[in-house]
Amino acid sequence: MTTKIKSHSFHIPVMGTGFTIDSPIKVAQYGISSVISLVDDILIEKMREFYAKKINEPFHEISNKIEDYRAKRITAYLNLVDKIVEDKFEELKNSVKESGAAFDKYMHMLPNISEIKQKFYEFSSQSYSKQDLLDWAHKHLTTGSIDVNIMTKLDKVNYNGDEELPSMYNDAHAALRGYANSDLASSIIFSAGMNPRLYSYIAEFDDFYPDENGYIKKKIVIKVSDYRSAMIQGKFLAKKGLWVSEYRIESGLNCGGHAFATDGLLMGPILKEFKSHRQELISTTHEVLTTALTGKARYTPSLPLELKITAQGGVGTAEEHDFLIDEYDVDSVGWGTPFLLVPEASTVDDETIQQLAKAKEEDLYLSGISPLGVPFNTLRGNTQDDIKHAKIDSGRPGSSCPKQFLVSSKEFTDRAICTASRQYQRIKIKELDANKELSSADRKTTLDKILDKSCICVGLGTSAMKVANFDVKGEGVSICPGPNLAYFSSIVPLQQMVGHIYGNAKVALSTHRPNMFMKELKMYIKHLREKMDEITESTTERQLKGLTEFYNNLMDGVHYYQELAEKMMHKAENSALKIKQEIEELKMELMGLELVMA
Asked: What are the start-end ranges of the E strands in 237-292?
């Protein structure tokens, strides 16, 4: 089977539940891949209604009263997105008969080194008719992939009345089934760690297995933060007869949304380890895979299947983009946060996008607002937080929890409830008030942590609802940009942003923007300092040992970047100079923490 030539060397990762909910409809016809979140089936059903009406397609609501409604909503929306993308792609190719504007836009956005672009130069150097051009477009142009994302931790148990439903109806399981039953030929990205039960469930669907040509209709992608995690998860899935087609490496802290910090392992050294051990990862998992597939009497490939390594988190310049590809052999680079400022690619309401364009470093922070208890990148002054504070001031803190996607606490109830809910916060505050041993300062600190939780599963979808003109009265917008947004300050067209990625155009950046690796290092030093501030007399020897390991990993990273800066001088001079300027200062700051620990 011939493999289609990929158009672009970047992709748009998932952003929140709503900011990339319809990105494929906007960009896939230009060969750009993007990722839809499958968390919020309520929002997904609304967006299906919006787009069905927009293209005059009959819309029949999938009510939450019918069996397996979550999976059915997801399948129906993904099939609709697939249809719209195919229709727009056909229009783009057929546009060569007339003005050719859409075709020209497609070709113009390709990187200069693109194989498709090179083939077009060869073709256009000869005389040709419009029919010849049309035939060429149909043969060579490809759409971007309509990929989906599941956060493995969001696998809430569901009920029919008081009866707990089987695990196949859990939130993540149902979302997986919704994707598996769709017509899409694309990838599903699993993020937020390993869920063995969910991973085992993948094996029930034929589309995830290779056919006799080695083709996998629905590919598995795992978002990881280190090599060890990739090996563990890859082998686990291989034992089920499932191949991981891509490992998506994301910075632990220099990213958007939830931030899953490593134990001080930095992105550069992690990427180096993947490059050094890529063949080991492939051969090890291939051996496990073939044994499992033989045992299942399924087609067993004699040679390893394709495995991609991609990277994302804090990338902001063409030089950084190219360096990741050239130095670490990554197959694609994720550009997320900057695309929040591109209305042609993401879905952000007018008020919020203006806030984003004006945001500075101090407006973007790692918060405690997520009910999952994981640090969450957010924008200071977002309207969902305004609503939260108004409820606190009125004496009725907490959300009514209308969507219940982030329920996680069984501290007070048999069924899990959300820590941002009014029910949970009322009980928690009552418990706090009953504790007479706390000082007023400790009470305030504890109370602030309770009240800080925000209803982000509603807030992250509000922007898309506003753009689609649905009623969002009483609902605010939560948004989750990475720190990199601070250095972008204008709303830009899609073509300009893509040109910026490839060095063919410029998007204005703050002059003080640090190199992506140095920004991450700085964030990790701050993270270590905060962990050290939490040391008390009750801190265990094991915890102290963990802090020492964290420190040592950071120092190893510093030494690696010092060597890397020298190596970069001849192919990424600007980045190399920035690293040289900043690394000594950061090293001294880190060494100061060692003195405190001692």
From this structure: 244-250
Q: What is the DSSP letter of 488?
A: B
Using alpha carbons, select from 307, 314, 332, 313 the residue that is nearest to residue 322: 332
DSSP-derived pairing of the beta strands 376-379 and 364-367:
antiparallel
Supply the pLDDT for residue 569: 87
> Phi/psi of residue 485, each to 5°?
-60, -30
CA distance 266 to 553: 8
Look at residues 260, 239, 236 and name the one whose alpha carbon lies nearest to residue 249: 260
Nearest Cα to 460, choosing from 580, 555, 329, 372?
A: 372
Please state, in angstroms and rounded to a whole number, the distance separating the CA atoms of residues 541 and 50.
56
Of residues 64, 75, 74, the one with CA closest to residue 17:
74
Q: Could you tell me if 89 and 103 are in contact, meaning their C-beta atoms sit under 8 angstroms apart? A: no
Type of residue at 94: N
DSSP 83-99: HHHHHHHHHHHHGGGTT
User: Which residue in 245, 231, 116 sits closest to 186, CA to CA?
Assistant: 245
What SS3 class is residue 512? coil
Could you tell me if 450 and 428 are in contact, meaning their C-beta atoms sit under 8 angstroms apart?
A: yes
Q: How far apart are CA 403 and CA 386, in angstroms?
A: 19
Q: Are 357 and 341 in contact (CB under 8 A)?
A: yes
Q: What is the phi/psi pair of residue 389, to 5°?
A: -70, -35
The per-residue pLDDT of the chain, averaged, comes to 96
Spans of the chain, pLDDT less than 70: 1-4, 595, 597-598
Residues 422 and 399 sit within 8 Å (Cβ to Cβ): yes
Element (H, E) at 157: none
Tokens of 321: 């983009």
Distance of CA 437 to the CA centre of its chain: 43
Q: How far out from the chain centre does Cα 590 lie? A: 29
Q: What is the pLDDT of residue 347?
A: 98
DSSP state of 513: P
Task: Please give the backbone phi and psi of residue 522, each rounded to the nearest 5 degrees, phi first.
Answer: -60, -40
- Which residue type is seen at 229? S
Residue 167: closest CA among 143, 198, 137? 198
pTM of the model: 0.96
